Amino acid sequence: MKTWVYIDHFKGEAVPASWETIGAAKSLGSDVTAVILGTGVDALAKAAFEYGADEVVLADNSALEDFRVEAYANALSPLVTDAAPGLLLFPTTSRGRELAGMVAIDLNTGVLVDVIAMELDGDKVVATRPIYAGKLLQKTVCNASPQIITVRGRIFAKPEAEPGRSGTLTKVDVNVGDAPTTVEGYGESTGGVSLADAGVIVSGGRGVSNNPNLTPPDGMSDDEAEVWRAQQGFALITDLAGVLNAAVGASRAAVDANYIPYANQVGQTGKVVSPDLYIANGISGAIQHLAGMRNSKVIVAINKDPDAPIFKMARYGVVGDLHEIVPALTVAMKAKLGK
Ligand SMILES: Cc1cc2nc3c(=O)[nH]c(=O)nc-3n(C[C@H](O)[C@H](O)[C@H](O)COP(=O)(O)OP(=O)(O)OC[C@H]3O[C@@H](n4cnc5c(N)ncnc54)[C@H](O)[C@@H]3O)c2cc1C
Known about the structure:
Elements: E1 3-6, E2 9-10, E3 13-14, H1 16-27, E4 32-38, H2 42-50, E5 55-60, H3 69-83, E6 87-91, H4 94-106, E7 111-115, E8 117-121, E9 124-131, E10 136-140, E11 147-151, E12 168-171, E13 200-204, H5 222-243, E14 247-250, H6 252-256, E15 277-281, H7 287-293, E16 298-303, H8 310-313, E17 316-319, H9 322-337
Parallel strand pairs: 1-4, 1-6, 4-5, 5-12, 6-11, 7-11, 13-14, 13-15, 15-16, 16-17
Antiparallel strand pairs: 2-3, 8-9, 9-10
Helix pairs in contact: 3-4, 5-9
This protein binds flavin-adenine dinucleotide.
């Protein structure tokens, strides 16, 4: 089936899930056309070929310098209409989801989001996606054309890059039209490793603040003292994450209590992640948290309550106080990794 893959990028730097999406298309036996929109993005075309694209359609336009969903949809929808691929894939990033939805409206078709497996049934893609906070897997087919699917990151293998591989590059003109938004600037919300791309995530929950041995500075209210304790606890988590080159995650309880920004939240109303290793510290394992991390390959739970539900999900469990265990783990990992 003729398949187009949208390459999501920020200022010319592709998100790794874009290359995984080429891998997902290849797993269906499709010839892949990568579609790239932006300004000064020729290098992305070269990379797309190296990651397995057979063709690249590239629209370089100064109005596409910043991602604005209306402008990108105005550019992409007519290209898709003209080429009429049977399948259009996006990585499930926030930009990818937004653009997929708008293009689906333009083309009067459906969109299946956050898909974790695909198989062909004739010219239809049977897509598997988690529903009910990941409790059930649903198999769905889109009966309109093109079938639009966003695929979850870190589920499909990223193809091995083949340096020097090339294919057919088609540069196209697009009419971006009137887009009602302008981007005035960017601010970095958090540093460190991005949760979506992380191979290892070290997460903290409400238990991170539970260290009665710490005496807060004089004059703090109870609420301030709790946040202060949590900050000391998250410093332990960040240390371990630093040694493991990991991203820092959090439960919603930790976010709601202002221990850590929302950008770090994992779960049903936070980020959905699929790392190789997820270390949950002081997190009980509520279903809404599990919805965000149950696809992690290996889960380690550190919790002082032996009956905490997270242990049912974890491959390895440590019952004890995270404030003792996490620093010990950091020391052990430093030694093991020679850091
Ligand atoms: C609509 C909706 C959406 C939601 N979305 C999300 C979401 O996206 N993500 C999410 O995480 N939650 C979400 N929630 C909230 C969820 O239901 C839980 O309330 C939340 O996950 C609990 O966070 P927690 O595990 O950190 O806190 P708790 O449930 O309070 O658990 C704290 C854990 O820490 C342990 N602990 C305490 N002290 C220590 C210590 N010193 N050492 C080791 N362990 C210790 C305790 O034994 C306990 O298991 C949502 C809820 C609703 C209703």
